[in-house]
């Protein structure tokens, strides 16, 4: 049961926001001119501490808590790049004009299944952020995995991590605790 919950948690992270920063270099300015302002294309990092995440798809809401430190956020970013880098053929993240982040990915979920995910993230990533995503899976060996799903992740910073949680620890409904970094190995 714990293993299935761990895999579900990783799958939610992957489906929620599997993406990667679009790499763009600013154009070089002439030596005598000041360089033009180029907005950052580096997606924000979440504030270290305890985050409560409410994942909903319209039919259910699952509440979990995750303890993040800098190293964990590097490995488990809000858009899922690191957790899925070896299975995604496309990962793109770009800043929107209203300060949010757009992302899209195409990932091989194994057994011939392919998942396409796209969405938008908004928020300050210090106290709150929200992700709206839609994913579509085709060709999965388990028929229940195929189809299109919409999901919202609403995350709020709760404060420092409690003494009984370390970076990567996630507390799932029912009090089950897993470490996402260990589950990725």
List the helices and strands and how they pair.
Blueprint: H1 2-17, E1 49-56, E2 61-68, H2 70-75, H3 81-84, E3 88-95, E4 101-110, E5 113-123, E6 128-138, E7 147-159, E8 169-171, E9 177-179, H4 180-184
Antiparallel strand pairs: 1-2, 1-7, 2-8, 3-4, 4-5, 5-6, 6-7, 8-9
Signal peptide: 1-22
Keywords: Signal
Region (Disordered): 26-52
Task: Describe the 3D structure.
With 185 residues, the protein is an alpha+beta fold. The chain has one domain. It has four helices and nine strands, in the order αββααβββββββα. It has helices at residues 2-17, 70-75, 81-84, 180-184; strands at residues 49-56, 61-68, 88-95, 101-110, 113-123, 128-138, 147-159, 169-171, 177-179. The relative contact order is 0.24. This is DUF3617 domain-containing protein. Residues 26-52 are annotated as: Disordered. Residues 1-22 form the signal peptide.
Report the biggest beta sheet as strand number plus sense, adding barrel if it closes.
9 strands, antiparallel
Measured distance between first and last alpha carbons: 18 Å
Bin the helical content. 10-25%
| Overall shape | globular
Number of contiguous helices: 4
Low-confidence stretches: 1-27, 33-39
Total discrete domains: 1
The oligomeric status of these chains comes to single chain
Tell me the strand percentage band.
35-45%
Quantity of strands, as a count? 9
What is the gyration radius calculated from CA atoms? 17 Å
Order of strands in the sheet with the most strands?
Answer: 3-4-5-6-7-1-2-8-9
Mean pLDDT: 78
InterPro entries: DUF3617
Signal peptide: 1-22
Region (Disordered): 26-52
Pfam family, one: DUF3617
